[in-house]
Amino acid sequence: MKQRPLIGVFDSGVGGLTVLAELLRQVPNADYVYFGDTARLPYGSKSAATVAKYAIGAAHYLEQQGIDFLVIGCNTACAQAYDSVRAAVKTPMIGVIEPGAEAAAGVSRKKDVIVLATEGTVNSHAYRKALEARGIKAEEKACPLFVPLVEEGWGEHSVTEQVAHIYLDDLFKGAADVMVLGCTHYPLLRPLLRRITPERIQIIDSAESTARKVAEALPHAASGGVSAPDVRFFATDSVEKFRRAGEKFLGQRIVDVTHVDLES
Amino acid sequence: MKQRPLIGVFDSGVGGLTVLAELLRQVPNADYVYFGDTARLPYGSKSAATVAKYAIGAAHYLEQQGIDFLVIGCNTACAQAYDSVRAAVKTPMIGVIEPGAEAAAGVSRKKDVIVLATEGTVNSHAYRKALEARGIKAEEKACPLFVPLVEEGWGEHSVTEQVAHIYLDDLFKGAADVMVLGCTHYPLLRPLLRRITPERIQIIDSAESTARKVAEALPHAASGGVSAPDVRFFATDSVEKFRRAGEKFLGQRIVDVTHVDLES
Fold first, then answer.
1. Which residue in the set B50, B148, B152 is minimally distant from A39, CB to CB?
2. Quick one: A80 and A68 in the same domain?
3. Does the beta carbon of A218 lie under 8 angstroms from any beta carbon of chain B?
4. What is the tens place of the pLDDT at every residue in A47-68?
5. Which end of chain B is less packed: N or C, by CB atoms within 10 Å?
């Protein structure tokens, strides 16, 4: 591997940019290519077979860009297609679920964890399996309206707060002392979720945990580099829409976006 | 054309089943094939170029099934890709927007109409153009949370009522006396919307108007047939998910669903 690795990150859309934002913070001595499958998003409501097909296409596209390391920056793709992608690529890779589960297991004293995720991630029970393998009880909760509410820009809206109460209040009656944000859109709801979640429950963001694991895997890349990371973006739908929607997830300007058609 | 035509209907997913339901009611002496592009839904948030590509693929697939008449049962596809589909197929066809606009124009005494639709449909201004061509002023309003709320099964939920008030109350202050449901998911919100909409505003469902136009185009098919319509379904994502999600839109059992992969 080169001194300064090229790291590829893919997601169904712009949500994985919260993972990229953490990578840029924790693994700054690297360059990045990000692939957002915006023409076919969301993955969260689709079947495992369809998600696996799309995820493999994204991973292959990033391999063609010459990446040294691959991050599945999408909980649904990781939950439903980690093994399929693993079998289809040659590049060292990591998903967001094992790091998120490991971090949750590390801090839960009650050994009881809540996981918030899309319908697809919940149906796969990938988090439950990863947590049970660490002796932790997991309660997974699908929150299908959270992604559209974030995309509407209602991350702090009273409607979103009511929806969160409807989804979560019963879960808060249990013994759990950790709650995992198991979808890359959910960090944008973190302040609201923190307010309505009992203090005894710690909130874990899989994006942060994943970046930490990448930093461990690529220690040279985790220290400050001589120059800022070069970041290129690829999107399967309109580049203008990607740029506009993406900047609030990445927290910085998005410049270099190229349109890609994987279906032609 | 045969005495008993085969009519093809396509949509990004299950929403177009509200159009099919109206067709089965108003045009019963026909058989049907329905194509739901569930692997790539929704169309509503995607760019015109991407939607056009998907819509042409769907239309060609239905032509391969031997259809005599094509209905674009998706407002977004009709708004963003009617001309592209028109140029790509040989079959007589109709979309949902012209019939919806015509029905609205026919009943609006104030010549002032509200149109509720997806972001893609609104950005195309297809309804505004169709209404202005008939001398009607149109106010188009994107309601991005309505589709996810319907899909969550919250068509009668207090949260949905609040969202509807947030989207619509300012529009109700104007002079409009007609409101068009310009998305095939919205008929499932009709009782709720009727409750919160001032009485002076009549609600028009594009699905009903479209079926009426098909009945006019195929008069033999509009009278009762000797046998019930044969209806076959094709979906690009899981057939089980299509069946489960689709029955509440169609209002009856869905049996014969075949999986189709347009991307291989």
1. B50
2. yes
3. no
4. 999 999 999 999 999 999 999 9
5. C
Confidence of residue B264 (pLDDT cuts 50, 70, 90): low
H and E: helices and strands count for chain A: 12, 10
What pLDDT shows up at residue A3? Answer: 73
Distance from CA of B126 to the nearest CA of A (A): 20
State both tokens at A195: 């307010």
Q: Residue B21: what pLDDT?
A: 97
Judge whether B252 lies within some domain.
yes
Does residue B42 have a cis bond before it (omega within 30 degrees)?
yes
Q: Residue A245: its chain B contacts at CB < 8 A?
A: none
Does A151 contact B144 at a Cβ distance shorter than 8 Å? Answer: yes
| Chain A residues within an 8 Å CB radius of B38 | 46
Query: Would the CB atoms of B39 and A45 count as touching at under 8 Å?
Result: no
ipTM computed for the complex: 0.93
Q: Chain A: nearest CA to B131, how far in angstroms?
A: 27
Given a contact cutoff of 8 angstroms between Cβ atoms, the answer to whether A114 and A154 are in contact is: no
DSSP B43-65: -TTS-HHHHHHHHHHHHHHHHHT
Q: Are residues B198 and B214 in the same domain?
A: no
Strand order in the sheet with B178-181: B137-142, B112-117, B178-181, B202-205
In a domain, A118, yes or no: yes
The structure tokens 């599945």 sit at A72
Q: Can you give the residue range of the structural domain that contains A74?
A: 6-95+209-259
* Residue pair B16/B34 in contact by the 8 Å Cβ criterion: yes
Taking residues B180-207, what's their average pLDDT?
97
Average pLDDT over residues A198-227: 94
Average pLDDT for residues A25-45, to the nearest whole number? 96
The verdict on A66 and A166 lying in the same domain is no
Both B53 and B118 in one domain: the answer is no
Task: Point out the residues of B that are catalytic.
Answer: 74, 183
Nearest of B48, B46, B7 to residue B24 by alpha carbon: B7
**Is A213 within 8 Å of chain B by CB?**
no
- At A140, list the tokens: 């997974």
Interchain CB distance below 8 Å, B47 and A151: no
The answer to whether residue A264 sits within a structural domain is no
Residues of A in contact with B149 (CB under 8 A): 145
In a domain, A1, yes or no: no
Domain ends where: A206, A222, A251?
A206
Give the count of Cβ contacts less than 8 A between chain A and B: 58
**Among partner residues A53, A159, A263, which is closest to B162 by beta-carbon distance?**
A159
List the single residue in B40, B46, B148 with the smallest CB-CB distance to A148: B148
Q: Concatenate the DSSP letters of all residues of A74-108 into one string.
A: -HHHHHHHHHHHHHH--S-EE-SHHHHHHHHHHH-
